[in-house]
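CORE FACILITY INTAKE
Project code: CF-77B
Contact: R.S. (postdoc)
Sample description: multi-component assembly, two entities in total
Requested service: structural model of the whole complex
Turnaround: standard
Below are the sequence entries exactly as provided by the requester. Do not edit them.
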Amino acid sequence: MKRVASVAVLPKIDQHVHATVVEVTTRLKDQPGALLPVLHAIQDALGYVPEDAVPLIAREMNLSRADVHGVISFYHFFRTQPSGNRVIYLCRAESCQALGAVALEKHVKARLGVDYHQTTADGAYTLEPVYCLGNCACSPALMVDEELHGRVTAERFDAWLESQTTATSTESK
Amino acid sequence: MSVTVYVPRDASALSLGAEAVAEAIAREARTRKAEVSVVRNGSRGLYWLEPMVEVQTAEGRVAYGPVQADDVPGLFEAGLLEGGTHALSLGLTEQIAWLKNQQRLTFARIGIIDPRSLDDYLAHDGYRGLEAALKMKPADIVKVVTESGLRGRGGAAFPTGIKWKTCHDAEADLKYIVCNADEGDSGTYADRMIMEGDPFVLIEGMTIAGLAVGATVGYIYLRAEYPHARDALHAAIAMAEAEGYLGDDVRASGKAFHLEVRMAAGAYICGEETSLLESLEGKRGQVRFKPPLPAIEGLFGKPTVINNVVTLACVPIILDKGAKHYKDFGMGRSRGTLPIQLAGNLKRPGLVERAFGLTLRELIEDYGGGTASGRPVRAVQVGGPLGAYVPASRLDTPIDYEAFIEIGGMLGHGGVVVFDDTVDMAEQARYAMEFCAIESCGKCTPCRIGSVRGVEVIQRMVAGNAAERERNEVLLRDLCQTMLHGSLCALGGMAPFPVISALDHFPEDFSRAVEKTGA
């Protein structure tokens, strides 16, 4: 099929973002139903899907900007802002509720000083709610990036958080 | 001689420190110059004992648990490698009553084999179902599955054989097998355990489905929250391809079957089959109207079989041992076994695979050992966030699809979440509506708007006086009826189940505010 040249001028974006989008779309766009794999790959590479990259993604995928924006905004997993260094996914679902997830949620928010979808002032952590991590036999659960934690209590969360701070400060020395 | 020690790589076991335990065992063995080979198996499903370490001895596998990394030197001191006695000893794994009193068909290999070894899978009856299927006509494979009485284990309990026959009979140049691995219901983890602990059984089940209906391409739509399952599947698919179990010419049969894992992106609604198809096509996961059925017009408009992980994992044993063997388990129209997942406030949570027909009470008291908090059981939610709350007085309900419909609920994917008497049921009802509001795809009004109004009405009930409460209860019940009958799919159509059951069985929780002010 002959491609219709896009009449809209693409907004200027960061060169690294541009290169990443082009690399990912070139690699994946020909597989059937490629948009989700493309968005995953962009988020894996950049940590988020920058909003100003949407026109470029749309052009490369031969979709409308509305299509791409619609998909990004539909799925909880895709973010359009950079996250903190690590993302904490805290489970809010029933099994965890049955073992004190509501109290844990309050504690974690207070301890980090953020609400859901926010990043701590030092940029270390972003807090996200999640509805089930499949760790329901070891509730309450949370996941840090891809590292799963079970039977989390306020004390165990604090201990984990402190171990991370110690680890980073040793590294920086 | 080298001793084999098993330390699970199951995500839940890892969440409790299994990685550190495996490292500690390797370290300790090096220090003691003992020859040890550590196998990273799946979980046996005895989660209160995880991380559970097993040692192969002449008498069989001996278990220890729950083991933490600091326990390892002591375990070696006590003669771990010979199955020696220690405070954490559990005896022979096969003799643990909790495990012994199960009927593991689908979970036969999980926790036993090394999920990263095709040889181990083959040594434990793996690929025997495919071998049988390759000698059969496609229509006969469909017939065996129909005769086994297997029904969709994802929640809807639709007869699998009928779905396959519809797809088999559809004419097309291309057909698909899609595995729904978007296990989003709270309290369920059977799909995850299968993918992590025995990924080849899912691959085999999908390959057989492909042969049966004439599909050559398969997709596993996997939730983004399951990175460990993703890694296990990628490894298993690569091995199956290398050994000719997947590809252009499956086991030199001349038939092709290609398999790919596609990652979801955190939308609960994508567990609904038509929404899942939209998502696989790279779109917003919005529910489609039915008909056309996916078996006739599914992925990219082609005939598609969509089945849940457990359903597909049941297929190999049915083809291997025959329809009758499977059908002889179970009761009424619920045939075979169901992997039940015990979760929430329980002393002994875990995976119980049994024939249909045992009661909730047996599960919660005999297997579960009562609540972890030691307080009385007040409510049990069966079937995920859209399942009804069963009061303690109804625990004698048998695990059977029809019996659960009778009590105004559903068995769903077999998740059982237990709450003790500190639970606030008005809050649980409000949460059910809130969850529906967050996860609604937005296509139909009863679900999109109804759930938001539901949250507001419940808040008014709880905050108001007696008259306000009564007025709002009428409104809430009416709203629930609209959602039940007017929603396009099960999300809006079942979100009222937890709400109505909470209202019916726990009305006192909705008037706490009234009591407190003494009105």
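Facility notes:
- The CA atoms of residues 86 and 125 of chain A lie 5 Å apart.
- Chain A has two domains: 15-74, 86-172.
Invoice: internal transfer
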